[in-house]
Design a protein that fits this description.
The complex is a heterodimer of chains A (289) and B (156).
Chain A lengths: L20 E12 L2 E7 L14 E6 L3 E6 L10 E6 L3 H7 L6 E8 L5 H4 L3 E7 L3 H13 L7 E7 L8 H8 L4 E7 L9 E2 L2 H5 L9 E6 L2 H15 L6 E4 L15 E2 L2 E2 H4 L2 E3 H8 L5
Parallel strand pairs in A: 7-8, 7-11, 8-9, 9-10, 11-12
Antiparallel strand pairs in A: 1-2, 1-6, 2-5, 3-4, 3-6, 12-15, 13-14
Chain B lengths: L2 H10 L8 H8 L2 E6 L4 E3 L7 E7 L1 E8 L3 E9 L3 E2 L13 E4 L3 E7 H10 L1 H27 L8
Antiparallel strand pairs in B: 1-8, 2-7, 3-6, 3-8, 4-5, 4-7
Helix pairs in contact in B: 3-4
Classes of the chains: A alpha/beta (289), B alpha+beta (156).
The complex binds flavin-adenine dinucleotide and FE2/S2 (inorganic) cluster (FES).
Chain lengths: 289, 156
Amino acid sequence: MAATLVEPPAREAGSDVMLPRPVRVSEVIQETHDTCTLRVVSPRGEPLPAFLPGQFSMLYAMGVAELPISISGDPAIRDTHTYTIRSVGLATQRFNAMRVGNPIGIRGPFGNPWPMEEARGKDVLVVAGGIGLAPLRPILYHVFHHRQDFGRLILLYGTRSPSDLLFRKELKRWEKQKDTLVMTTVDYGGMSWKGNVGLVTRLIGRIRLNPARTIAMTCGPEIMMRYVAYELQDHKGLDASHIHLTMERNMKCGCGFCGHCQYGPHFICKDGPVFRFRDIQPLMMQYEI
Amino acid sequence: MNIQDLEHILEDHPFVQGMHYPHVRTLLGCCSNQRYSPGDYLFRGGQESHEFFLLREGTVSLELYVPQHGGLRVETRGGGDLLGWSWLIKPYRWHFDAKAITDVATLMIDARCLRQKCEEDHSFGYDILKRFAALMVHDVRAMSLQLIDMHKPLRA
Ligand SMILES: Cc1cc2nc3c(=O)[nH]c(=O)nc-3n(C[C@H](O)[C@H](O)[C@H](O)COP(=O)(O)OP(=O)(O)OC[C@H]3O[C@@H](n4cnc5c(N)ncnc54)[C@H](O)[C@@H]3O)c2cc1C
Ligand code: FES
């Protein structure tokens, strides 16, 4: 399997970025009661656009709505794109009801990716909350393909309850990989649950990090990411420039034309969704943004 | 286990990180090594609290007894965590059950001994209090985040 990251081609304003590319669903995986993973392919099987970990597509449910969804698959696989979608409203419900063969439109990939180059030679700490594991999964694929380029890989993953855990089989597989630590926790666990109960931030206290050689990437509810970042900064000594997180806002164009996703001086679709904590830390505490 | 081994284990625990060496020695005087098997209780709600635990390995479940329902798992703690601050505040009573759900290795701190040493040496006592205050703030923050259920889509 080819495992090098391929830079998506540069796009120019006025090109066909606003035109959805028709694809069809080739596989549906029901991950949890409200979340599914869709694999999509081109109708004639030609490769789909290359993407970098952390990038997203605008997914069009024909005649319903278009929405931003991160690519959750392996960046080394070129003939399919994978999306993991949690049902929260009309459009995401529509995607969760999709069957093999259904048509979808995709635009992209868009956005600023996770800093994989900067992470080379470092320990990689991935902190995920809920559906936030989906945009982070390509990081794990990339690190496993290039194991010698990275130090320790630590995944801390928290969900609301045990039944909300995504990618269960993969979590078990990842646990067994060399130099890899996987810890999961749930906010509410029944008495039969033998794993951790408590917030994902609690797990941070239990790991040893070398702050000088660690890069952290986190995705989940905004409140969670804020506390993860503070915990890493205040208790583990990580510099705010070594902590990266993804921001979400409503989007229309997905590529910096419409201003819909403005976040202070940034457009999330173009300058993000991945940001350095250092660059957005002051914005995160401004209530009116 | 001899006292040197115990000292190394204590020094390695995040709770004593950055602690002044004489204070580590004082704390060591109240410390013993304890192991628990799955199903063992480290303490039970309602009992008097005269110890706290620095967890080394394993998982401990904090449970609340709900009449006619049984135990409700509120949180788990693992290696590197501290367990218990009821020893610090009168009337020194546990509010939760703490049950080992795996094999557990801990350092148990005798709180009667510690309270005495805190009274005798206020600099040591202040150090301990600051560390506990930080952990209590941490716990309260975590609990409030758990309460708001941050994973639920926020309805407008
Ligand atoms: C860059 C980016 C990447 C994303 N990647 C993914 C992904 O990989 N998987 C995925 O499932 N979602 C992802 N999202 C979120 C997804 O786009 C939204 O959930 C979706 O637009 C909601 O549309 P809807 O019509 O189903 O819900 P709406 O009708 O728009 O909203 C329904 C309810 O859900 C709430 N809601 C809307 N969006 C979110 C949200 N992001 N988080 C929590 N609650 C929300 C609303 O407040 C509303 O109450 C991403 C968003 C961005 C900006
Ligand atoms: S969605 Fe149009 S500028 Fe970001």
